[in-house]
């Protein structure tokens, strides 16, 4: 992409630098300094990141990652933009995913969960950034759709009233306990990661972490045939993505675990 450069993902399971956390001292984050110096001529408008990399395979940055990133960005006076399209609105057990990391972005973009299915997107920025916009700088033919905005307000009110963030954390604990038990029995499971109800299961064939792409597709198809819809993807195309409705019940999560267990057994 012209005008863009990329930082190695904070993918601890497949570390770009072949190091281990925490001995690595967050080498993936510290690499930002080198990227700025050698790839950008120290002329950067903004750094953009997801709190968890959704399409990348629910890649979950380690503790301290964004604190290190923030320190480098402030040193170089670079704006920090967070993409909360998948992670926002209670999905990860916080209203916004970046809250897990103790940093505050300059700009935050959001969509999807904001209006519970109604088409809507939005962004928020620090006051001095937002005030820099002049009439006509930012517009949309369908921006501010009143029906979608009303749905969003009702949705957010429901989230706050029912404390969906805490519910997502409780359901994460329940589901991960089940999945960790599966990992001990089913050799296909390489890693379980994520926060709240945004969970990834990376599938591998062996100790060399060979991506189990064919097996993953078969598991997804088996689950679909038995009433469970799962996402499947990631950088290597071998990650089952569990991102159910936040109002899913414990009984339904039990059923999710039951179907997954049956699917994994086919490869033992």
Write the layout of secondary structure elements.
Layout: H1 27-39, E1 46-49, H2 65-75, E2 79-83, E3 107-111, E4 121-125, H3 127-130, H4 146-162, H5 164-185, E5 189-195, E6 198-203, H6 213-225, E7 231-233, E8 239-242, H7 250-265
Helix pairs in contact: 1-2, 5-7, 6-7
By CATH reckoning, the class of the largest domain would read: Alpha Beta
Shape: globular
Runs in which pLDDT lies below 50 for 5 or more consecutive residues are: none
What proportion of the residues form beta strands (DSSP E)?
5-15%
CATH topology of the largest domain: Aspartate Aminotransferase, domain 2
Q: Any idea how many domains? A: 2
Strand arrangement, largest sheet? 1-2-3-4
Largest sheet: 4 strands, mixed
Rg of Cα set: 20 Å
Please give the share of residues in helix. Answer: 25-40%
Structural class: alpha/beta
Distance between the ends = 42 Å
Total helices: the number is 7
CATH superfamily of the largest domain: Type I PLP-dependent aspartate aminotransferase-like (Major domain)
Element order: H for helix, E for strand: HEHEEEHHHEEHEEH
Quantity of strands, as a count: 8
Which CATH architecture of the largest domain would you pick?
3-Layer(aba) Sandwich
Could you tell me the mean pLDDT?
95
